[in-house]
Amino acid sequence: MIKKIVTDRKKLSKKCGKCFFLELDIFRNNGIINDMIDTAKSDKTCVGLASNQIGYDRRIILVKNETGFTAMVNPRIFCKTGGIKKGIETCLSFPGLKPKVRRYRRIKVEYQEVTGRTNWVEFYEDYARIVQHEIDHLNGKLI
Hints:
This protein is α+β, with helices and mostly antiparallel strands. The protein has a single domain, classed as Peptide Deformylase. 26% of the residues lie in helices and 34% in strands. It is built from 4 helices and 5 strands, in the order H-H-H-E-E-E-E-E-H. The protein has a 5-stranded antiparallel sheet. Strand 2 and strand 3 (69-88) form a beta hairpin. The longest helix has 14 residues, at 125-138. The two termini are 27 Å apart. The relative contact order is 0.21.
């Protein structure tokens, strides 16, 4: 189900809680991850979405890829390299805002898949920027 994007700075400034393994079945069965995907797909400009942007207080993000969106549960950046690059960012929660934000060019992220399996992925350039932006949302940090 497509959800309304949260724009309230106070709500978005709160840090999201960790998603525990037992909750993953609930989130899959209650459609929270599907709600995130439906909401992300409803906006052609969407390249990433954090769960708190649609009102859920758990550490889940989506990142657009070649085939759709990848859900990442409890994502954690454990390595930042490649220097820092300043770039313009946009955000569904703050339409019209286009600040220049400094981000690492290369990051390594540990996360859980919706099955509970732990995964490690390295992201470069634009994908690294998107993942950092979405994890900032989970940490209550706004652009």
